[in-house]
Write a structure and sequence with these properties.
- By secondary structure, the protein is an alpha+beta fold.
- 39% of the residues lie in helices and 19% in strands.
- Helix 2 packs antiparallel against helix 4.
């Protein structure tokens, strides 16, 4: 499963923030094997410009979703200024976490938010497996569209 992480920075330095997040994730030995850099394709004609560099996670079954959720939350808590990390799942669902909302979280609140990010990643992986196996009840079989973004009051916004 491929998950992309895009960083929006309040100071406009998305490339620097993406690089910093990439390096942060690479420091975790549980996450390091799954982290890749990704340069988006050139913008379409008439578009304002290309997005900054993306961080891509290639998660195999049993991948470190809890470690990824925790790493993103802790990285945001340590950033100055406003930062937003958007995790885009293969079905188009986006999990958005903003430093503006996580900086002041207690350890318990940060842990709960990391668990919610991990749960969103795990849910997508389960649904992807079901689609590949052709199980009844999977979204592919049901023909449902993308889910609403994960979010709530403890630091994630949708």
């Amino acid at each position: 499963m491929r998950v992309t992480l895009a960083v929006a920075s309040g100071d406009g330095d998305e490339a620097g923030a993406s690089e910093d997040l990439y390096e942060w994730l690479r420091q975790d030995p549980d996450v390091r094997p799954f982290v890749r850099r990704e340069v988006p394709a050139a913008p379409e004609d008439g578009a304002m410009g290309a997005l900054g560099e993306l961080v891509s996670l290639l998660l195999a079954p049993g991948g470190p979703t809890a470690a990824i959720g925790a790493a993103v939350v802790v990285w945001l808590q340590g950033r100055r200024g406003n930062q937003t990390v958007t995790l885009t799942l293969p079905d188009g669902t986006q999990v958005v976490v903003s430093s503006e909302k996580v900086r002041g979280l207690t350890a318990e609140g940060a842990s709960e938010l990391a668990e919610r990010v991990a749960a969103a990643l795990q849910q997508e992986r389960r649904e992807q497996q079901e689609r590949q196996e052709g199980r009844p009840g999977s979204r592919a079989a049901d023909g449902d569209g993308p889910r609403a973004a994960e979010g709530g009051s403890s630091g994630a916004a949708g």
